[in-house]
Amino acid sequence: MSGEHLEAHEHEYRVARLVERLARDDLAELGVRVEERGDAILLTGTVPTAARRDEIVALARAELAGSTVLADLVVACADAPDRWEELS
After folding, report:
1. pLDDT, tens digit (0-9, with 9 covering 90-100), for 7-54
2. Rounded to an integer, what distance in angstroms lies between the CA atom of residue 77 and that of residue 71?
3. DSSP code at position 33
4. At 45, is the secondary structure helix, strand, or coil?
5. In terms of C-beta density within 10 A (0-12 exposed, 13-18 middle, 19 or more buried), how is residue 74 classed?
6. CA distance from start to end of the chain
7. Residue 44: φ, ψ to 5°
8. CA distance 83 to 70
9. Contact 12/41 with Cβ under 8 angstroms?
């Protein structure tokens, strides 16, 4: 195998491992998608808190060290409404 082929295989393995860790570890974030976009990895989806978003991005950057990790993760707002809803 050429060095380039080995690097590509290693990269695929690391991406798959990240997806598995997101699904299994304490995170259990099944709503986060991991996509390859050119030379970068893009994380998309909705997470419950900003802290969880930061955990996921840190995990991805550690797991995929050397790769560019981009995050488009939306934080779901679960706050109580600050005013009454008017029904007509």
Report:
1. 677 878 888 998 888 888 666 777 889 998 888 899 999 988 889 899
2. 18
3. E
4. strand
5. exposed
6. 69
7. -130, 160
8. 35
9. no
The answer to whether 58 and 30 have CB atoms below 8 angstroms apart is no
69 contacts 44 by C-beta, under 8 angstroms: no
Instruction: Please choose, from the candidates 8, 65, 70, the residue with its C-alpha nearest in 3D space to the C-alpha of residue 35.
Output: 70
CA distance 16 to 37: 15
pTM score: 0.74
**3-24 helix and 50-63 helix, angle to the nearest 10 degrees:** 150
Structure tokens at 3: 């060095």
CA–CA distance, 38 with 11 (Å, rounded to integer):
13
Q: Which residues pair with 45 in a beta bridge?
A: 73
